[in-house]
Amino acid sequence: MEERDMQTTRSKELANEYLRLGGKRLAKIDDNIVKIRHWEDDTPEAEAFWQKNIEPLDERRRVEVETHLPTINDR
Known about the structure:
By secondary structure, the chain is an alpha+beta fold. Helix content is 49%, strand content 13%. It has helices at residues 3-20, 44-54, 59-66, and strands spanning 26-30, 33-37.
């Protein structure tokens, strides 16, 4: 598997685990700019997971994870 595919798979795994733990952040994607909206509180487990596993990522990898989250348009 190519490195890019492995990173995408890892990004999706991180996003899925965050959501499984009760994460509520939503992605806002506009003109390929990704931002996160956070109106509802995460469960303590999801917040801890985000802080430990996603927040420390470099910007490019963090954006890859964020693109796997539900979007504000999904609401």
